[in-house]
Amino acid sequence: MSLMTTLARMEAVAAGRAQPAATVRHRHLSARPMALVPLTTAGEAGAPLGALVGTDRDAPRLLVVPQPRDRDLRFAFLAGLADAVLPYLEGYADGVETEERKETDPETGKKVPVEVELCADAPQLLVPGAGGVEFVRLLGRSMRFRRTAEQDPQAPYPAPPHVPLLGRWLTHCAERARVPGSSMLLSMTDLLARHWATGQSGLEDQHLGALLAWIDPPVGESGADAALRVELERFPDAASSGEQAGLLRHPPSGPATDPVFDNRLLAPAMARFDAARSAVERRDAERRIRELVASQLEPAWQLLWRGVDLLRKLPEGGHVADRWKRDRWSYTGHRDRVRAGEPPQPKRDDAVTAAQKLASRETAQARLEAQEALDDPLVMAARRLAGEAFAGEVTEVVMARSEGRRPMPRPLVTVRTDDRPHVNDGVRVFRVLGDKVQSAEFVAYEPDGIVLRLTGGMGQGKEPKPGSVPEEGDRLCWTLFEHAPRGGPALPDPEATPWTHGGPPPEGTLVADAPDPPTDEDLL
Amino acid sequence: MNGSFEPEDAALDPGTAAARATEAILHSTLHGTERGVVVDSPPGAGKSTLVVRAARELAAAGRPLMVVAQTNAQVDDLVDRLATADPDLPVGRLHSSEANPYDTVLDRHPSVRTSAKAADLAGLDVVISTAAKWAYVSNVEPWQHAIVDEAYQMRSDALLAVAGLFERALFVGDPGQLDPFSVVGAEQWAGLSHDPSASAVSTLLAHNPELPQHRLPVSWRLPASAAPLVSDAFYPFTPFRSGTGPGDRRLAFAVASDGSAPDRVLDEAAEAGWGLLELPARNTPRTDPEAVRAVAAVVRRLLDRGTTAASERSEEPVPVTADRIAVGTAHRDQAAAVRTALAELGVPGVAVDTANRLQGREFDVTVVLHPLSGRPDASAFHLETGRLCVLASRHRHACIVVCRAGVAELLDEHPSTEPVQLGATVKFPDGWEAMFSTWEFWSRHRVPWQP
Amino acid sequence: MNASLDSRTPAPAPQAAPEAALPRQTEALRLRLAELRGPETAPYPLDARALAALAANPGCRRRALLDGAGVDKAALARAIGSPATFGQSQFAFVRGNAFEARVGADAGAELVRLLVETHRDVAAPGPEGVSVPDLTATGQAARAARTRLALTEAFTADRWSLLFHPMVTLDVAGAPAHLEPDVVAVGPDGHCTVVEIKSFPVVDGSADAAKVGAAARQAAVYALALGRLAERIDGPEPSHRGAPRGTDRIRPTALLVCPRDFSNLPTGEPVDIRKQLAVTRRQLARLTRIEEIAASLPEGTTFDLRPAADGTATRPVDELVHAVESVGASYSPECLAACELAIHCRSRSRGSGAVEALGRSVRGELGGLTTVESVLLAAAGTQGDETDPAVSSLRRAAALRAEALAGETPCH
């Protein structure tokens, strides 16, 4: 935790409510996100118990599995989920714009402009917490290799239609969620904790109810008290509480359920369902389970949308649209792969794919950190404290030129600052200049301030372009980090994986992984 | 491991043991049938000498080669050594297009050609560059041979980017120093043989376990007082010994001790090769002013007392001047604070840096600000063995550790709740164990100080 | 610590002789601990999970004392009005049992297959089959005796033996803890493998790393106990012709058996437990200091709940709280998932304004500033020594933050 964050948290403790950790919203928030609040059964590999899903906060769709061990009921849940989610996910596929990209023409070897299709917008999934993201990942993995009856008439337990396709999309979203700064699949706790510093620990912030209590406490109650109440309060363990005795007043946001709920309410209801002999008994028992599961889901659903409301109040950061565009590229790419009939994502990344993902995520992280600082003075303040940026007033500008045949302008600028950046000889610094970046290099520490030599942003001529050289009295902010970090070198194709990394994958393994063999006691 | 440490090596003198190991390595490199050869090189074992020699032998055998190093400083150092050792050998230095892309000392060698384009240098016997630059080279005939230097500090994905440029390679590195890392999580690939965040050597060996692995068995840098501790604590599977015996490396002071704690710890270090200057226990921020001043005071006294070093290198003892002393810290801000403190004491010219930047360098005497000094608890960063190993293995004569008391308690209370990734090889030595055993050892050379 | 590359040799124990490792509990200490827990109360059984959890927060004296004295921390937490938040859902319980039963079915045929696959140096069972001795008996002592007999036989038999739910005792600060591993497998070569059966899944070869870590620590506790039992069985004679004896019999790699992917089919994964073994040995050796902690308490301190006939605590709450507070704790948010008293300790920590209530890592940067109040006063400039880097950084941080929130900073 940075010192700035620590201080903010302590200020929250003193103030009794969360303090801002950002002045703008650093993630894209769709005008029409789809919320997914799942619950899973304890002790299973993510076997779903139920979920609320939808884009309309007032009309969620409830999906429940009355007996998670029953394959047909599970499949019905997955079919229902596909029915609810897939049209939304695919709904953005046809609204396209064209973008111009430079690609290397294979014949001439030159870079030529090419028109490429880019989806104008993309879906956004919101889940309550990190457990929800994991659940999406797990569901995606379990579904994407299944075969429907259409794909494989011999399959003993064919998946309902569209389930494998949903699996591919969920896997794509979950993998995209690993990219720093992406907004395709977001966890509300992560989103809120990015923008507010509470007076509790990061671990405790993973409780959505407690987090919201700090950020937006009820009138007349401090954030700390409200959070504690939401976290711990249970109905009294007495007859007066009826069937809710001992239950948490504010059910956990999942995917894990309150064990007391499992033991006292759910288990008997499921036993009743299992024991049902007639269709009427079964229907009643199922209705009961649906009610129970809904009672545990609804509070989390409300919390999630409350979080959306709070986030909408923040103005969007300047570079958020740029990062969302990358998410749109990612969406478009997956759309194209599905349309092209490519197989689902393999179970394990090969050496080249893994290396590519790591490198691109590192670039994304550097880009995210730079852009958040440029968009938000509060974030820039933390970078300044860490010695990675500095701001101050220009006290002197001395014109100078580079040596050599074509002398270029290299003015010396002195900046007085209270910051203490980690600069020494030759360190390059950058500042925003219009819609471009101006670079400079550190020359010396003087009593008057830091002396920099401008090395760019002044045009190609002998004289610097007007406005490109700061003047005395200007207030500037220089960063030690690049504003637009570039990606790394190209990596070999998987077919050309070198011997050091195991050589190319054997023939045929770049084709689809086989579906998991079905057994009698599958959970998902 | 099919290394070269047979029991009878122990009976050989260090020079012979090292020579035998080197011959075996060169034989594997020149005549072996495997595509790769791995050499573990403990601190000061003569890695650069080995690389230069291997390059020359390959070149002499008519086998042009490329050399991959990790930083520009390493590349320039290798080029310089190679050209100095063999002024007629055509050597290419491939460099970036940035300003000041290489050390101008290379321009003094007529046999060295520099260029930003690999094509300009093809055909030269040896072409050397950084992994980062090589990754952008394409459309060249692959080399038959390559030498990959500092292969344990190279990340797996960096190797992936350049491995297509060569057929066979000699991989040399120090397994005890800092591992490569990523600021982004890489847990989803932990346990996979091609985990891109693992070291190049671990990926190489995971896919090619039959490759010959050699070991340089002698450290010519570490004195007899240090090699056993460093070897036991940081190289449990690839032990090494000192190239010199007890008494071969000596420090002497022209000025007697003034009885102060810094002087007494210097006396201890001169005697035993190690000294621990222990400040009173207290929780302090990283740039603990008292500890920083203590470090600066020790350096100051080292210079003021006219310290001289006697070794096998020269007949007469040589003065330990500022350029022969270094201060090592865990964090950059600690290094900055020590630099300021030294400037205030009027002491210029002493290298002060973090472990990351001290890797590969050597000094007569080092002063180390212990990574756990003043901390209420230890984090994974502070317990990283590579960091402590680098800090404790830079010296030829003595190392003084400056630390606040309380480390034993901190280690004792350290929670062990680490996650375990299936399939991932467990890394030895364990950070906690290394901290503990070194602390126990250094405590025997403790000089307490109440400043 | 100089662990050899050969994974079959565990790192040597720091103590000389295994039995003499922990000093015998004196009668006085035993009485004192009984007094602390309540003379009518049986000691809360320390199982492997609890022992493994000793490593979670070794610096906490409160936990060390309560665990050492056999106090039921969950009951204590309920009695003082801060009940623990975690409990177990019966679904998890049922599932765990069902999977375990499946693994052990057919006299453990599946399990042996997994073992042979993992330890590729041992042969699969031939016509001699697999021995699955009956270990049932009444009472822990009898079960432990049965286990010892079965193990002795298994060591000399030239076949695979599977001991399901054996009972091994481990001397913990002078009192025996009865541990029940899931399975102990003895190969025809005389080597023992600890098998841990868990119901969390292994998907595509990977599993939740925190859960695997917990399983590894548990397995290490069993491995340690087994090693000591093996020493007692084999006695001091040296080994013949390289056959393993004593602690050398216990493989430093445990077998973790979990459901594979989304099915109920078991998959076995080897887990290297050398580090966990070293940690457990250290933690067990540290337990001896409960004597010192107990001695530091005020005269007459007890955690006795004085339960009524129906089990409810009758001891006044403020007395219990006072007793709990008489021994220091080391709270951090990680305690919430690991210790039943965490809610109480958290409220105290927050009440005193301790900075670690916000996270373990927070303390490091703040140096001598240990309370929220002192941090805020330092940041505001009204308190604190400017030469303390923590204070000057906090002041700078506060100024930068205020500037940013007031909208005064340039970003360009």
Automatic annotation (TrEMBL), chain A:
Annotated spans, Disordered: 483-524
Top-level division of the source organism's lineage: Bacteria
Protein name (record): Uncharacterized protein
The organism of origin for this protein: Streptomyces meridianus
From TrEMBL, chain B:
Keywords attached to this entry: ATP-binding, Helicase, Hydrolase, Nucleotide-binding
Entries under SUPFAM superfamilies matching the protein: P-loop containing nucleoside triphosphate hydrolases
Domain DNA2/NAM7 helicase-like C-terminal: 290-404
Family annotation (InterPro entries): Coronavir_polyprotein_1ab (IPR050534), DNA2/NAM7-like_C (IPR041679), P-loop_NTPase (IPR027417)
Top-level taxon: Bacteria
Pfam families per the UniProt record, alphabetical: AAA_12 (PF13087), AAA_30 (PF13604)
Cross-referenced PANTHER family: DNA2/NAM7 HELICASE FAMILY MEMBER (PTHR43788), HELICASE WITH ZINC FINGER 2 (PTHR43788:SF16)
Name of protein: AAA family ATPase
Native organism: Streptomyces meridianus
Organismal lineage: Bacteria, Bacillati, Actinomycetota, Actinomycetes, Kitasatosporales
UniProtKB/TrEMBL annotation, chain C:
Protein name per UniProt: Secreted protein
Segments for region (Disordered): 1-21
Taxonomy, superkingdom: Bacteria
